[in-house]
Amino acid sequence: MIDTITHFKVPVDREERSVCLGPDGSVAHVTRMLRMISGRWKLPILFRLFAEPSMRTSQLKRDMPGISQKMLTQHLRELENDELVARRDFGEQPPHVAYALTNSGRDLMPVLMAAREFSRRHL
Questions:
Q1: What is the pLDDT tens value at each position of the chain, 123 positions in all?
Q2: ∠ CA 45-51-56 to the nearest 5 degrees?
Q3: Is the distance from CB of 85 to CB of 100 less than 8 angstroms?
Q4: Domains of the chain (ranges plus CATH)?
Q5: How far apart are CA 80 and CA 101, in angstroms?
Q6: Which residue(s) pair with 99 in the sheet?
Q7: If exposure means fewest CB atoms within 10 Å of the residue's CB, which of 21, 42, 45, 118 is most exposed?
Q8: Hey, which residues does 98 pair with through a beta bridge?
Q9: How far is Cα 66 from Cα 100, in angstroms, rounded to an integer?
Q10: Alpha-carbon distance 52 to 23, whole Å?
Q11: Closest CA relative to residue 106, chosen from 63, 28, 51
């Protein structure tokens, strides 16, 4: 029973607490990751790009009814800035652009899948 109680594992010593609460601690890193994926459409974009290796903007928009072009573009830019999604411009006319997960984006997917399973088990 004691092995499953997590509050016993939180450092109590002031110096040890910086591991969790310091500027480079666990809380800061998890908060940064949550900021990267926060936004109404970011998770649907990430899961779609996980299912399909590469997608054009029009395909993403078609797969997510209700998203505006402005919001799709904004979220794709934010995901690109956070290096979770890569944009590939083919330099053609009319413009041909495709999006895909980066290595960091693919590394994030097991975390998101674990969150999904957590949600399923804790309705």
A1: 455 555 556 555 666 666 677 777 788 889 999 999 999 999 999 999 999 999 999 999 999 999 999 999 999 999 999 999 999 998 888 888 999 999 999 999 999 999 999 999 998
A2: 55
A3: yes
A4: 1-38 (no CATH), 43-123 (1.10.10.10)
A5: 9
A6: 55, 87
A7: 118
A8: 56, 88
A9: 21
A10: 36
A11: 51
Amino acid at 108: L
Contacts of 109 (CB under 8 A, 6+ apart): 46, 50, 101
Task: Return the closest-CA partner of residue 107 out of 55, 46, 52.
Answer: 46
Q: How many residues does the chain have?
A: 123
How many Cβ atoms are within 10 Å of 100's Cβ, its own excluded? 15
Q: What is the pLDDT of residues 46-71, one digit of tens each?
A: 999 999 999 999 999 999 999 999 99
Give the number of other Cβ atoms within 10 Å of residue 31's Cβ.
Answer: 11
Task: Take residue 5 and report the two structure tokens written for it.
Answer: 């109680």
